[in-house]
Write a structure and sequence with these properties.
With 128 residues, the protein is an alpha+beta fold. It has a single domain, classed as Thiol Ester Dehydrase, Chain A (Roll), CATH 3.10.129. The chain has two helices and five strands; from the N terminus they run βααββββ. The termini are close together.
Length: 128
Amino acid sequence: MAEQDSDEIAIRVRYAETDRMGLLHHANYFVYFEQGRTELLRKRGLTYRDMEDAGHLLVIVDLGCKYKKPAYYDDLLTLRTTVERVTLVKIVHKFEVFRDGVLLAEGHSTLACVDREGRPQALPDTLK
């Protein structure tokens, strides 16, 4: 996966994802981030299932989000997922959540590649 590889997807905030105030619950941003990573892989013709079946497991070792403005029920959001850095065993993603071009949240995640016993291993060539 090349550094600065990027993709955008549209996400509609569902009622079940909101709190009593009608705001997108903060934990759901992380679910959206996972969706962004998955779709970025899919865009490259890869799936997590295929990688896991080949013995390459990607685990979260760092995850964060900075909330700037709230999202609400039924908002149509744009999630931009960007690969910021790739090392021998890790991939760092950046996430930006927009509504009508306004930045609502930005986040990051670091994934490490491990084997089935949890030991670090080199990323497969398809992700470099």
